[in-house]
Design brief:
about 30% strand; single chain; disordered N terminus; three-stranded mixed beta sheet; mainly beta
């Protein structure tokens, strides 16, 4: 499920949205000892160690950023997805392969109850650059990251609902 659909679900009260969980996973999954372009994303500020985390990689423009995954793939555009259970201890790092060196937009989700639905009051979201979030998606430039010909390490701070109309990092 793309992040734009998650934001739309949040705006409509968290209604269930059909998901294609395997779309983009074969292309996105990093393999042992692989040296090509990829993002190694360390998640900071997780609320807890429950559920699953997911990263999705999109083209670097506002029209395609957070677009429905089925539409992107049907149009031959870049889309990658990687999901995993949150590890009980240690750093939380997701690796997603990029098709080539360059700039991409990324979205991350902490699905705390693993139900494949965005829970407005409980689930977390994050983007590179840690943009301030409200009810609309951030501009692609504030959620972009660049990778070279090998793996690139970045850190994304997860944000959770902190008020009626906004998201933010958890206060420690």
């Amino acid at each position: 499920m793309s992040m734009s659909l998650l934001l739309l679900a949040a705006a409509s009260g968290g209604a269930a949205i059909p998901s294609t969980p395997d779309l983009g996973t074969a292309e996105g999954r990093c393999r042992p000892n692989e040296s090509g372009p990829a993002f190694l994303i360390t998640l900071a500020g997780l609320k807890d160690r429950q559920g699953r985390v997911k990263v999705e990689l999109y083209p670097p423009n506002d029209d395609d950023f957070l677009q429905d995954d089925n539409k992107l793939v049907a149009a031959g555009k870049t889309f990658r997805r990687v999901e995993m259970d949150v590890p009980k201890t240690g750093p939380v790092v997701l690796c997603v392969r990029a098709p080539a060196a360059g700039t991409y937009t990324l979205s991350l989700l902490h699905d705390r109850d693993s139900n494949r639905k965005f829970g407005l009051s409980k689930d977390g979201i994050g983007f590179p650059g840690d943009p301030k979030l409200g009810w609309s998606k951030p501009a692609w430039k504030s959620a972009a990251a660049t990778t070279g010909n090998g793996p690139t390490r970045i850190t994304v701070t997860m944000q959770y609902r902190v008020g009626l109309f906004s998201f933010g990092p958890l206060k420690k």
